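The protein record quoted in full:

***
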Amino acid sequence: MNKRLLVTRPNFDRTTRYVSVWAKDVIKVAEQKGFTVLDLVGKRANRREFEGMVRKHKPSFLFLNGHGSADAITGQNEEPLVEVGVNADVLKGAVTYALSCSSGKTLGVQAVAHGADAYIGYREEFIFLFDEAMRTRPGQDELAAHFSTSSNQVALSLLKGHTAKEAHENSRQSFARSMRKLLTSEATDRESAAIRYLFWNMRHQVCLGNGSAKI
């Protein structure tokens, strides 16, 4: 496989600003591993540029961040980038990790049917908590870090040579470790509240397609 990673990072509201910052850690590791990173951040996270970059460069790994639904993943200002019945075939031949609500329910299934090597995502909403006092500094938000660390484990594991199934399981184990840590520590009320959502995300993360696929 070619060593190319395409990342979408819309950043137009609080949720997308957070996940856009989280993705920087993945980009840093990818560059250290010798990957060419195609970073569609902000206004560049639009369908025209996304489709053009995928078809031209054929990245082996697609890391898609943004709002979503069972049928679509969106970019800047919720412009659909990939949609069921429209362009799910754009993911053909690649491993995709979608940090996007619910896209593992229908879109991921269709992407695999159209030739995606593997699709890791969530069949329900991805939910995270944040510290209101840190809303302008997502990278320093320790409450949100419980979620970003476990989510990013999918992408980081793939970059380190793990299979799609292994990356999925590594992420789920990371969610479990975060829950155990909060259960056994002197957690704040907000941290205690995070446990249910860490479990929710762990439970609803799915790995579709070829679990042995690597990037």
